[in-house]
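As promised in the previous annual report, we have extended the structural survey to additional targets. Below is the entry for Transcription initiation factor IIB.
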Amino acid sequence: MVKTINPKDKCPRCGQGTLVTDANTGENFCGKCGFVITDKVEESGPEWRSFSNEGENKSRAGVPTSLAMHDMGLATVINPQNRDATGKPLTAAMKSTIERLRTWDSRSQVHEPVDRNFRQAFSELDRLKDKLAVGDSVIEKAAYIYRKALEKGLVRGRSISALIASALYAACRDTETPRTLKDIGQASNIKRKDIARCYRLLLRELNLKMPVVDPVKCISRIASKAGLSEKTKRKATKILQTAEEQKISAGKDPMGLAAAALYVACVTNGENKTQRDVAEAAGVTEVTIRNRYKGLKLALNL
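The corresponding structure token record, generated without further manual editing, is:
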């Protein structure tokens, strides 16, 4: 296959012919006088070729290793179909060899209780990932915390579902992803107090240090649920930043504080939203919003 590189590039020897590349030999030469400029051209195409019948499946490697897989993605799978890469049936001798390899492969796979525990826990974690729409970094962190808990023997006698849910909540807190205990409880169908109990156990036994939840992180989530404008969001962010500077946000529920700041911003900007609308979007009660609203009003002289 011969192709012209750039019609504007002229031969340095004759100054008239255009430069041409031969993809098979890797030569870069003049199309008129035949002067060879370079005889080794770097291959710019993909480094793999497909030998399978699928055509499109040209991946050389499998999925990357991940803590959120029971075997970290390092397992071997031998295709159950007795066909080679081109799709032809295997010979009788090769068939018996592959059968023996399959037997040893399945025997070498870990079938210990720990492995079964990881399978169950990480399938639950995968389900929660889709329900709560959290990123891969959060899931990796949750899997790491769960593996540490299993190493310490914290899972024995406790619910796997509750412990993986609490590990996910801990990962959300650590990565500052705004997900509440209530959200995780609803997604996992486990009581909030059970998740909270397991979460406290993880903090105590694994010596985890969690950052304080920033109420500003909760604003965009509540605002999008309640259908508030960008102007109101910016105003609420300013109110919370001022409240933080004056140290009145300490010890307050971040979701309630963010909801109250948004309500204050709605009142200031004349946006027609009731306390109930904001409370439902934030998952807190109207009483909480009223109490936080009073506190913000007094502290900031609104």
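Residues 113-206 form a domain with the Cyclin A; domain 1 fold (CATH 1.10.472.10). Residues 113-132 form the longest helix (20 residues). These points will be discussed at the next consortium meeting with the crystallography subgroup.
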